[in-house]
Design brief:
This protein has about 350 residues and is of the alpha/beta class. The protein is built from 13 helices and 12 strands. Bound molecules: flavin mononucleotide.
């Protein structure tokens, strides 16, 4: 299948009352439509991510010693074909429609496609425990999953980390920004803020790299590093937890300056092309996550959809590297973009 065919099929398979499969997934058509993939309130914490990236332009330089760009990325000793992973999206049936009956069948396709494309996928968590547990079959089968759970208490973290380890997770992640969602605060045990000591106790439960997701300022990044995180994700949860946040691209440089020498810094929100990947990398990210477009690709083409979509993103990134003379990821520097 071509990416165009996948997009066409996605339009058929996605529930149109939830997701309109827009040519560019930008949070405008779905504004106010929840449950679904929309953002909260005015959706500015979603749309601003795309607006901020759009304002940044490439600063090309095509006079250099020619070579072939290498997009490969080291993820804790594992070689990925590009610095892009699929971000965690839990509960796809509720948000995107019944083409996939549950998170197990969806994740089996997603992780297979990401593996074929040489990358990893995070899996999600929600009030219903199966959103966390159902993807474990795919995590075990394909070996390229990163289970992501919401911070509750140590007992809860114990069983989730044990399950991730038993199923051969590539790493483990926690989305600490999800405490903004009122229904999660009423769970038993409740999703809640953690002190550095509480977070450190959770991280100490595993030898796997722990990635802390949902950081928007250097202060939080510093605390996550103090607690033992091996990587962080600069992210607005793409507007799912609160309105009126800055774009991830706007706050990334300060966070990179604070902790970038100590841990890997990932970013997400609004990545819709390989050029956007390049922009985030030039701003200081080591790698990026992509959320909704992966779901659309899998709804349109199953495992092949995830593979073709990843290849589409990589081709664009390669082109940006050719045009700037960055032949490896570490060559991508801040002066290769123009930021207003
Ligand atoms: C329907 C939906 C469910 C999500 N579920 C989770 C989740 O369980 N855990 C998490 O950390 N992030 C979750 N996210 C946020 C994404 O992982 C990611 O931060 C965001 O989608 C990236 O932005 P993008 O969609 O603009 O690429 C979810 C997002 C959507 C749209």
């Amino acid at each position: 299948m071509t990416y165009e065919e996948i997009r066409k099929q996605a339009k058929e398979n996605l529930d149109p009352t939830k997701c309109s499969a827009c040519p560019v997934c930008n949070g405008i058509a779905c504004r106010g439509r929840m449950p679904g993939p929309a953002a909260r309130g005015t959706a500015s914490s979603f749309t601003r991510n795309l607006e901020a990236l759009e304002k940044i332009k490439l600063n090309i330089d095509t006079l250099y010693e020619a070579g072939t760009p290498d997009t490969s990325f080291d993820f804790f000793g594992r070689r990925l074909s590009l610095p892009v992973m699929c971000g965690p999206i839990g509960g796809v049936k509720a948000s995107f429609g019944a083409h996939y009956e549950d998170d197990e069948t969806y994740t089996m396709d997603l992780l297979k496609g990401c593996l074929d494309a040489g990358t990893l996928a995070f899996t999600g968590d929600a009030p219903v425990p199966t959103v966390y547990t159902a993807p474990m079959k795919a995590v075990k089968t394909w070996g390229n999953g990163i289970p992501t759970f919401k911070p509750r208490n140590l007992e809860d973290a114990k069983w989730r980390i044990a399950m991730a380890e038993e199923n051969g997770a590539a790493a483990i992640a926690m989305d600490i920004d999800c405490i903004g969602l009122p229904p999660l605060r009423n769970l038993d045990p409740p999703v809640k803020a953690q002190t550095v000591e509480e977070l450190a106790a959770m991280i100490a439960l595993t030898d796997k790299p722990v990635i802390i997701k949902g950081i928007l300022n250097p202060k939080t990044a510093r605390k996550a590093v103090q607690a033992g995180a091996k990587a962080i994700v600069v992210s607005t949860h793409s507007g799912r937890v609160i309105d009126q946040l800055p774009a991830a691209a706007e706050v990334l440089p300060a966070i990179k300056a604070e902790v970038g020498d100590e841990v890997k810094v990932f970013a997400d929100g609004g990545v819709r092309s390989g050029l956007d990947v390049f922009k985030y990398l030039a701003l200081g990210a080591d790698a990026v996550l992509i959320g909704r477009p992966y779901v659309q690709a899998v709804y349109g083409g199953g495992a092949e959809g995830a593979k073709v979509y990843t290849d589409f993103i990589r081709a664009d990134l390669v082109n940006a590297m050719y045009m700037t003379g960055a032949l490896k990821l570490s060559d991508i520097t801040r002066d290769m973009i123009l930021v207003p």
